[in-house]
Amino acid sequence: MTQRHAIMLTGGLLCLAAITMNGQKPAAPRPTSVKATGTAKAGSPPRAAWGDPDLQGTWFVLYDVPLERSEANKGKEYLTDEEVAAADAQKGLNPGRNARAAANTAQDVSGAYNAVFNSVLKTGKRTSMIIDPPDGRIPPLVNESATGRGGRGGQGVPPGGFGLGTAPGVNDNPETVPQNPRCLGVPMPFLPLNTLFAQGTVMQVVQSPKSVGIYMEDDHAGGGNRVIYMDGRPHAPAKARFYLGDSRGHWEGNTLVIETTNFLQGFRGSNSDTYKMIERITRVDSNTLRRDVTFDDPKTWTKPWTVTIEMGRGPDQRHMIFDSACHEGNYGLTGILVANHKQEQAEKK
Predict the structure, then answer these.
(1) What is the rounded CA–CA span in Å between residue 107 and residue 247?
(2) Closest to 311 (Cα-Cα) out of 162, 102, 124
């Protein structure tokens, strides 16, 4: 069993916060739809009592959009209506594994969740969350002399770098195993990378004049609370590291700009010492929120790259966030370490 398969064993019991399977009713009324058209621009968003744009509410990702543009869609920013319909029809054919495979195979383990654990979102028109670079792809890694990892895919690095918690050696000991399998809460950058498990699809925002709070609920990992200070204080000292990073915010017109540094772990193989994340959150109208996230690390990528996530607002009269039950912490870490040791033994043979 590989490390990847061992991690998959810890994958989880997710929150049913988004839309459920075809033919089933949503857990609550759906938020207003977001049109997948070019760059969203804010008009006159609602204002908080002290005058700042009001971002408060529960916000949901409404559409399933891949992080990177596929080769099949190279040079194509949007899908046609026909392509969207075909993709949605395909989702209905394979809603989840409702029976175990006859053989104990890796495929069975990685997909052994039946339909009740799935949250199927409609296909979005965008062919990638990445809007910059224009090709919809994560930029190449910096040259080998700078990092020892080579360009895109070089030195055993997959395209775009390693995913969170999958770099070599990260599962070798309890101190470096990511927080997800240990039920320690949501990791950043909180992107909807696997909407089937409702990962990164729902958040709640509350505000005050000097701070903004963002609660994130994410699949089996549980929740996480971010506090973005707006009072001009500097970042924490460089030696202080946090799971969710250290966030400072300010307003640029109607857009909340958040710079987050001091991460305990990098993202996609980034260097945690030089990696930072810039978010631009704009309330486009009363029911639409746009979140642009730029990833910048001169020691990892040849240039910064940006994703866009469009979200709809849930109704205030309903509590739209369902608590995630995380049981993997009871056995997940043991499973990861045992599998890792088995792999080491096999490699020695």
Answers:
(1) 39
(2) 124
Is the pLDDT higher at 293 or at 338?
A: 293
CB neighbours of 180 closer than 8 A, spacing ≥ 6?
A: 10, 164, 165, 187, 220, 221
Give the span between the Cα atoms of 293 and 78, in whole angstroms: 20
Torsion 98-103-108-109 (CA) sign: positive
Q: Where are the alpha helices (DSSP H) in the chain?
A: 3-9, 81-93, 106-110, 144-147, 332-348
Beta-ladder partners of 46: none
Helix (H/G/I), strand (E/B), else coil: 117: helix
- CA-to-CA distance for 89 and 87, rounded, in angstroms? 5
CB-based contacts of 207: which residues, under 8 Å, 6+ apart?
A: 48, 52, 54, 55, 56, 213
What local confidence, expressed as pLDDT, does residue 86 receive? 94
pLDDT of 97-109, one tens digit each? 555 555 555 555 5
Tell me how many degrees the CA angle 311-313-314 measures, rounded to the nearest 5. 130
CA distance 81 to 115: 26
Average pLDDT value for residue range 176-196: 80
| CA pair distance 26, 3, nearest whole angstrom | 35
Residue showing tokens 């700042």:
52
| pTM as predicted | 0.75
Which amino acid belongs to residue 231?
D
> What's the count of helices (H) and strands (E) in the chain, helices before strands?
5, 12
Nearest to 271 by CA among 282, 261, 279: 261
Do the beta carbons of residue 151 and residue 301 sit within 8 Å? no
Give me the mean pLDDT over the 319-339 stretch.
73
Residue 274 and residue 139: Cα distance in Å, rounded? 17
Sign (positive or negative) of CA dihedral 192, 198, 201, 205: negative
Q: Label the pairing between strands 122-123 and 63-64.
A: parallel
CA-wise closest residue to 259 among 307, 294, 289, 301: 294
